[in-house]
# Entry
Amino acid sequence: MIVTTTPTVEGRMATEYLGLVTGEAIMGANIFRDMFAGIRDIVGGRAGAYENVLRGGRDQAISELIEEAQALGADAVIGVAFSYSAIGASDSMLMVAVSGTAVKLA
# Structure
């Protein structure tokens, strides 16, 4: 499955637009990860635990997008866009959402 942020697939023509496909992942906050991220904020450096959570959420959302596109018989998903949001009480959860257009290619 081709998944791209571009509106076309170079060298291939979209012959049929199958519709919007999406994927979402919501991850809860972890008190220990939050505590160590707070320490990183004070002393500087990257928050590797949060980066791993974001990466995992993004991968999960993309997998859901691909599953939805495959169910429609798509060859590709074009125009893919990502959104990241803090949600829930006190912004205690992170949501990663991805969307795009499922297409058939020539």
Notes: Residues 2-105 form a domain with the Translation Initiation Factor IF3 fold (CATH 3.30.110.70). The two ends are 14 Å apart (CA to CA).
